[in-house]
Amino acid sequence: MAGGKSSKNQDSGKGKSNKTEDSGKEKANQTEDSGKETAKPMSRSARAGLKFPVGRIHRHLKSRTTSHVRVGATAAVYSATIMEYLTSEVIEMAGMASKDHNAKRITARHLQLAIRGDEDLTNLVKAIIPGGGVIPHIHAPLLPKDEESPGPEDPEPEKSQEEETDEEAENEDDEKKEKKAE
User: Fold this and answer.
1) pLDDT tens, 7-32?
2) Residue ranges of domains in the chain
3) Where is this chain compositionally biased, Basic and acidic residues type (predicted)?
């Protein structure tokens, strides 16, 4: 029996240490059960699924108001969303322009071509991009005249056999329509 008592004492000793460990686990379980878990802090950008910093934009919106009015939290999220979308559009089109020029890097020239190539972005971005160059454009009066159009001295170009058969078929159709109309 003495051995039994010692085993109980050993068990009770283990039980005490287990109780302290268990009490910590029970507290953790209680917080899980009550729904009040301590979650990792999550940024507003991560919550919105954005790369642009919502908190920083919110801070700048608040500091830039002249009458120091309140700025809603969704205003910063909306602004960050718009800026991220426009940035991705410009970068995508500049990337395509760089591929057209067989370049691996996007330069100021590619940004200029991307922005000026899109009508909406041209209206939005009125700034001059340093190092962007100019958009290639030749005014219509400066272009050479078409050689295909006959001039006053040139005789009328000869028609191919296909064009002659097409005209004959059209003439026959017109004659049939006139007969039906009478």
Assistant:
1) 445 554 454 555 555 555 555 555 55
2) 44-137
3) 11-39
